[in-house]
Amino acid sequence: MAESRTDRFKRIAENRTNELIRRIRILGNCSNRSTYDYSEQQVNKIFAAIDSELKKAKARFTFAKEKRIFKL
């Protein structure tokens, strides 16, 4: 039997979310000051980039609440 679209979404979304969480945790390993040297500016730049991409991805999932109709 073919996998339903809902089941396929769940399978893929779970895998990708878990992989993303794993990668974020690995990025956190870079916070070790005894191994790495970095500035607050560099850290802010990293998380600004992540925040930006996260907002873009989330926006793609937003459901239109109402259709906007142009009127003069």
Q: How are the SSEs ordered, and which strands pair?
A:
Blueprint: H1 5-28, H2 40-60
Give a structural overview:
- The structure is a single chain.
- 62% of the residues lie in helices and 0% in strands.
- It is mainly alpha-helical.
- The chain is flat, with a radius of gyration of 19 Å.
- The model has no long low-confidence stretch (mean pLDDT 93).
Short summary:
It is built from two helices and no strands.
Radius of gyration based on Cα positions:
19 Å
| Terminal residue distance | 53 Å
User: Helix tally?
Assistant: 2
Helix/strand-derived category reads mainly alpha
- Helicity, as a percent range: 55-70%
Overall mean pLDDT stands at 93
**Low-confidence segments, ≥5 residues, pLDDT <50?**
none
Shape: flat
Q: Which strand-content bin applies to the residues?
A: under 5%
Number of separate strands: 0
- Give the H and E element order: HH
Q: How would you sum up the major sheet?
A: none
List keywords for this structure.
72 residues, mainly alpha, flat
